[in-house]
From TrEMBL:
<feature type="compositionally biased region" description="Acidic residues">
    <location>
        <begin position="398"/>
        <end position="412"/>
    </location>
</feature>
<feature type="transmembrane region" description="Helical">
    <location>
        <begin position="63"/>
        <end position="81"/>
    </location>
</feature>
<feature type="region of interest" description="Disordered">
    <location>
        <begin position="382"/>
        <end position="412"/>
    </location>
</feature>
<feature type="transmembrane region" description="Helical">
    <location>
        <begin position="25"/>
        <end position="43"/>
    </location>
</feature>
<dbReference type="GO" id="GO:0015112">
    <property type="term" value="F:nitrate transmembrane transporter activity"/>
</dbReference>
<feature type="transmembrane region" description="Helical">
    <location>
        <begin position="317"/>
        <end position="337"/>
    </location>
</feature>
<keyword id="KW-0812">Transmembrane</keyword>
<feature type="transmembrane region" description="Helical">
    <location>
        <begin position="257"/>
        <end position="277"/>
    </location>
</feature>
<dbReference type="GO" id="GO:0016020">
    <property type="term" value="C:membrane"/>
</dbReference>
<feature type="transmembrane region" description="Helical">
    <location>
        <begin position="93"/>
        <end position="110"/>
    </location>
</feature>
<keyword id="KW-0472">Membrane</keyword>
<dbReference type="Pfam" id="PF07690">
    <property type="entry name" value="MFS_1"/>
</dbReference>
<feature type="transmembrane region" description="Helical">
    <location>
        <begin position="164"/>
        <end position="184"/>
    </location>
</feature>
<feature type="transmembrane region" description="Helical">
    <location>
        <begin position="116"/>
        <end position="133"/>
    </location>
</feature>
<feature type="transmembrane region" description="Helical">
    <location>
        <begin position="191"/>
        <end position="211"/>
    </location>
</feature>
<dbReference type="InterPro" id="IPR044772">
    <property type="entry name" value="NO3_transporter"/>
</dbReference>
<comment type="similarity">
    <text>Belongs to the major facilitator superfamily. Nitrate/nitrite porter (TC 2.A.1.8) family.</text>
</comment>
Length: 412
């Protein structure tokens, strides 16, 4: 191993631009690339929605329903994938998620009705459960000194798949049209979905062939149970831990905050290309490029700047708001609690009605987002802590003494 490691074989350094430091950095890159492909697949339909809408005669409510469906299944899937990672290892879980959902990406090429389109997007959304295995895998590769940095870089790079889909899918469509003269638009957009399907499949195979859960660790061997589950059946322990996590009030608070933040992000990624296409009368490739500004710059204020999105009246001002929005949206998504926490997933909103209602709806929804997170600024000390000392964002630790069980328990 070319990286310095601790006693558990975990790397104590992260070299993001190195692939030669095996097995740590190779596994790191495979992990985020696989999740990148999943994000790319899940967000590949929105930039082509103006074309899909005309071909399948989609209504506004059906388009909204397809967006909600694409992220509904992942809520349950992310709860289930955690125990799968514990039982089989993150490498196998990552590959399983990608390979099991890739057929539905290819199936987008064959959909012939609004109902089929909504159903296929629902199952493609399961691929985003790979976020859990991505974080599990990265955490098993790097020590506590750098694991936060590693997790942030891995998921952040993977999340750019949303922007890459906005940018590349219209280009793939245009290439198909240019390469095959006279090809109908309804055929060209269908052919474009072979690209995300193939990307997801190839990255999953690479994970299986070249990936390693952790240095010297056999994925399928039973690991020594932790002190929290030592009295339980090892096969039942992961699911028991899910229940324990659901009783953690800190996890629920951070989960809801994460849901409001990430929900806004997912909503924007689902509607922004169509919004630009319809409101500013730009071409599908231009709409995709402009929408990609948000996804590709999505490094870190969901809510506050989004209130402005419905107020601006030009494409330049809209892009400027998206740039400011994208600087902060991931910052709230990455609220973290040491110990056992539960991340709840996507909260999505229906965008229905006329253009004015849609813009007003975005302002109202995201005003709620801003108000909800005011609680994090309060100093009751229930949201962030270190060494079991409670503190808020702007307050020091309290003097209250609690046992570990009392500290985490929601149901007493």
């Amino acid at each position: 191993m070319t990286l310095p490691v601790d006693a558990d074989g975990k790397a104590t350094e992260l070299r993001p631009f190195s692939c030669s430091a095996t097995p740590h950095m190779l596994a790191f890159h495979l992990s985020w690339l696989s999740l990148f492909a999943c994000f790319f697949s899940a967000l590949s339909p929105p930039p082509l929605l103006p074309l899909i809408r005309d071909s399948l005669s989609l209504t506004d409510s059906q388009i909204s329903l397809s967006a909600v469906a694409s992220f509904s299944g992942v809520v349950l899937a992310r709860l289930l994938i955690g125990p799968v990672c514990d039982l089989l290892g993150p490498r196998a879980a990552t590959a399983a998620v990608s390979l099991s959902t890739a057929p539905f990406v290819f199936a987008l090429s064959a959909v012939g009705s609004p109902e089929a389109f909504i159903a296929v997007r629902f199952f493609i959304g399961f691929s985003l459960a790979g976020f859990v295995s991505n974080q599990h895998w990265t955490s098993s590769l790097f020590s506590a000194d750098v694991v936060g940095f590693a997790n942030g870089v891995s998921a952040g790079w993977a999340n750019t798949g949303c922007g890459a889909a906005q940018l590349l899918m219209p280009m793939v469509y245009s290439c198909v049209v240019a390469a095959f003269a006279g090809v109908p638009s309804s055929t060209a957009w269908r052919a474009a979905f072979f690209v995300p399907g193939a990307l997801q499949t190839v990255t999953a195979i690479a994970v299986l062939v070249y990936g390693e859960d952790a240095p010297g660790r056999d994925t399928l061997k039973t690991k020594k149970p932790s002190k929290h589950v030592s009295k339980r059946n090892p096969k039942e322990a992961p699911f028991a831990d899910v229940w324990e996590g659901l009783k953690d009030y800190i996890g629920w608070t951070l989960g809801l905050t994460y849901g409001y933040c990430y929900g806004v992000e997912l909503t924007v990624n689902n509607v922004i290309a169509g919004y630009l296409y319809d409101r500013f009368d730009v071409g599908i490739r231009t709409a995709g490029v402009l929408a990609a500004v948000f996804g590709l710059m999505n490094l870190t204020l969901a809510g506050l700047l989004c209130v402005l999105l419905g107020r601006v009246g030009s494409v330049k001002a809209t892009v400027g708001v998206m740039l400011g929005f994208s600087l902060f949206v991931q910052a709230a998504s990455w609220a973290h609690v040491r110990g056992r926490s539960v991340r709840l997933q996507e909260i999505d909103w229906d965008d229905i009605g006329d253009d004015r209602k849609r813009r007003r709806g975005r302002r109202h929804d995201n005003s709620v987002d801003v108000l909800y997170r005011v609680q994090i600024l309060q100093g009751d000390g229930h949201l962030s802590h270190g060494d079991n000392g409670r503190r808020g964002m702007f307050c020091g630790p309290s003097d209250e003494e609690n046992s570990e069980d009392d500290y985490y328990s929601l149901l007493k």
